[in-house]
Specification:
- It is a single chain.
- This protein is mainly alpha-helical and about 230 residues long.
- Helices cover about 75% and strands about 0% of the residues.
């Protein structure tokens, strides 16, 4: 019979492996689900409205713009005294690459009969992806860390900070040609409950106690308070 001392490192390694898989599957799925929203043409999530608008302006792909904006937002963490994690840095690159890769494979959608299912699938899969990568607990995405940093520095609520930033982001992206539509509204209404559901579903059990990892720290609230 194996001793507790020999079993414990194995459990820790398996727990870490599961979290890493969750992180990268979640981030890749997040990028792929965002691509579905782009193809639907019915409206994007707030930050991708900005990314698409800048892509139209610069001629770069939306995924590459997403990477540049993510890196720029990450620099704003310095004065806000936020600390990035593996998930934060990975978010910058994996989401953009997955989005461009999916868009390269997806055919154009014509007619509402094809576009509406893409919209619904994109929103649901985005919520699933959010739950996956947050539950992995490798740090928030750069944009979510921006919200928590502004909250801590200003004393204002996370909900207010998110609303102000995302309204500015959508308005700027729309001015540059980003797609705002019914999908943008549906995303804003649905992503919080969907992410909360999948966050609880994918919470990895702690290797030492076997209980679920608590979900509800500042980075989680930054995403779920919409």
């Amino acid at each position: 019979m194996q001793s507790v001392q020999s079993v414990q490192p194995q459990l820790v390694k398996r727990h870490l492996a599961r979290r890493l898989v969750q992180l990268y599957v979640g981030l890749a799925l997040y990028g792929a689900s965002s691509a579905l929203l782009v193809v639907s043409g019915l409206g994007l999530e707030p930050w991708n409205v900005l990314h698409q608008g800048l892509a139209e302006l610069t001629g770069m792909s939306i995924g590459v713009v997403s990477i540049f904006i993510g890196a720029a937002v990450l620099l704003l963490w310095i004065p806000l005294r936020q600390r990035p994690g593996l998930g934060t840095v990975s978010n910058v690159f994996v989401v953009g690459l997955a989005m461009d890769g999916t868009l390269a494979l997806m055919p154009d959608a014509h007619g509402l009969g094809a576009r509406i299912p893409l919209l619904v699938a994109g929103i649901v899969l985005n919520g699933l992806a959010t739950g996956l990568y947050i539950a992995a607990k490798f740090g928030p995405g750069p944009r979510d860390g921006l919200m928590t940093g502004l909250h801590q520095r200003t004393g204002r609520s996370i909900r207010l900070m998110r609303t102000l930033v995302e309204v500015a982001v959508v308005a700027t992206g729309f001015a540059f040609g980003g797609t705002v539509g019914i999908g943008t509204v549906l995303y804003a209404l649905a992503i919080g409950p969907l992410a909360q559901f999948f966050l609880r579903f994918f919470a990895a059990p702690a290797p030492s106690r076997g209980g679920p990892v608590a979900a509800g720290g500042p980075s989680e609230q930054a995403i779920l308070r919409r």
